[in-house]
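Sequence only, no structure available. Ideas?
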Amino acid sequence: MSIDSLRRSARATVSGLPGGFWWLWLSTLVNRTGAFVLTFLSLYLTQELGHSAWYAGLVVALHGLGGVAGSPLGGTLADKWGRRPTMVTTHLMTAACAAALSLVTTAWGIAAVVLLMGVSMQAVRPSIQATIADMVPEHDRRRAYALNYWALNLGFAVAAFGGGAAIFLGYRTLFLIEAVATALCALIVFLRLPETRPEARRNPAGEVVEKDRVSVLDVLRDAPFRTLVLLNLLVCLVFTAPWVGLPLSMAEAGLEPGAYGAVIAVNGVVIVGFQLLVNKMTDKRSPAMLLTVSSLLFALGTGATALAGTPLVFAATVVVWTIGEMIHVPTNAAATAKLAPEHARGRYQGVMGMSWALSGFLAPILAGWVVDGPGPDVLWISCGVIGCVAALGYTTRLRKALADGEPAESTTVAGRPDVDKPVLDKPVLDKPVVDKPVKAVAIEAVAVEPVAVEAVEPAEDRTERGSVSA
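Reply:
I predicted one. Tokens follow.
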């Protein structure tokens, strides 16, 4: 592939998206570039404050538990209060928590701050996902979600690389840097990002139309979406397991701790280097097919870890499930947006985010229990089986619901019509409108000369080659 073709491919990948998206993309990059708390929290608690490893693991689990509550809360606020105020408020809450961690030293105080930080960090994500769905046309959404995920990982890679400054600056200084970066992110959103929340329909009295009222329970009653959430939970459990089980497996294989750092760094390198290429190769593919393939890649990559014994082989398994991650994350977000009614996108993304947070809470506990009990090989074989089960679910249960030709309003839920029934403003008449017989009118045939019609380039293709809005 020539340099020119690569340049054209990159331009097509980032072109045609609205200017507001790029401000949101920039805020994500800034936010993740300063993400030091979660990266160094365990080391800070054990090395600097002298707490036990058990306590450090408990605190990290509390962060995940806070996210389980924060995600549906953030989704509800995004729909009721607005995307922008929710983002600004939760970013500022996260900044305050990061700053507080540089000051609080008691065990209970740290646990409380990290729990609140888990709530605020996860609460902002439904607003971000819903905003992308609001401003980006459906045929470009998966590409937009992939670009935003790329920014997230690019920022995280910079943060991990800059984390070496902890040796000179200290962990508390890094936490303050995260507070400043997150506050700057909130400022970008406040100054540059427009509000995109669609308004729910209202009756003459100004009240929301009853069928447009959507609660979290209504979201969970949406059968196709509920299936999507449960399958995503399975995939997330598989995806999270290597972050706990991989260092233990490598240690059991007699490898040094430094080898794990090099192997897991492959994940970030592959995402930063190849996310745009993978997105280009999978563009316009069936969502159900992509979710199925990504689940199989997770199953293959994690299952093959049971056979690994050298750093090179361990790194190869990471490459496999990382490709699955690059396909799954944007496709799952776009599928969520597709199934959600526009006035409930925040709630739908919030419930989906809850599955990510729940896996982040459960997977470390389950993976540690399996490794200490039956052993690492059982963990990896189980991950392979779960991944295959998820792939089977995507291809058998969601292929029709996520079909490209189907409208976003695909199932019955409050505020969303059933596609099997036509939605009409007026009742269908059983009788023809004309009761009297209609006289036949003779129509004289008219010869029409053929007219040459110039081929028009599809709008979608024109968008792909448009310039980037900054």
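The two ends are 28 Å apart (CA to CA).
Hope that gets you unstuck.
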